[in-house]
Specification:
The protein is of the alpha+beta class. It is about 50% helix and about 15% strand. It has a three-stranded antiparallel sheet. The protein has a two-stranded antiparallel ribbon with strand order 1-2. Strand 6 and strand 7 form a beta hairpin. It is rod-shaped, with a radius of gyration of 30 Å.
């Protein structure tokens, strides 16, 4: 269940930002654990014995088989930290990219995918994938992608040569007025209307 916020972003977006910070913190903890394991791996035991005429210090190194689990643990924790840092960086990059798309799209009724490609420097395929993810996560829920025209269009956009039609909702049976060619959800139950 997603809750709409006042700025048309979803709570899901903020949860992802929180998860990104959490992954970064876990990465730092993993590095700390790796450091502790390496300290334990290199640790040696020193014992000092004193007598009346002598003082003897014995340094004992543990066998490699006793220290090996600490080395393996350190390697695993470093690998985990690297993975967590990569995941954190990727999440921040994606969030910033989505904010850039949102800034370009908001306030326009229609913008072509090619124009977005020229502005951002990304391919059309990548932009369509990103925009669809944004629509699915309801960051830009009042837009849809028109693949035939190669554009992202506001659901509030009314073409100059528009035709209105009354359709019945298959879910609740209510009648709804739609503009042909623009997807719409039922005004009563919220289900997508079949315009055919």
């Amino acid at each position: 269940m997603k809750f709409k916020l006042t700025n048309n972003q979803t709570l899901n977006f903020f949860i992802k930002a929180y998860i990104a910070y959490l992954l970064g913190a876990l990465g730092i903890l993993s590095l700390g654990g790796a450091w502790a394991s390496l300290v334990k791996f290199t640790q040696k035991t020193t014992q000092t014995t004193t007598g009346i005429f002598f003082k003897k210090t014995i340094t004992e190194h543990h066998s490699f088989s006793e220290r090996l689990p600490y080395l393996i643990g350190a390697i695993v924790l470093v690998a985990l930290a690297v993975y967590l840092f990569k995941a954190t960086a990727k999440m921040f990059i994606v969030q910033n990219r989505y904010k850039k798309y949102e800034a370009i799209i908001k306030g326009t009724e229609r913008i072509s995918i090619q124009e977005l490609s020229d502005i951002t420097g990304n391919s059309r395929k990548v932009i369509i994938t990103h925009l669809q993810r944004m629509i699915d996560s309801e960051m830009i829920s009042d837009y849809y992608i028109d693949h035939k025209l190669g554009a992202i269009i506001s659901k509030k956009f009314i073409p100059e040569s528009s035709t209105k039609k009354v359709v019945r909702c298959e879910n609740c049976g209510a009648t709804n007025e739609i503009i042909v060619g623009i997807p719409k959800n039922c005004d009563f139950c919220g289900m997508p209307l079949n315009v055919n």
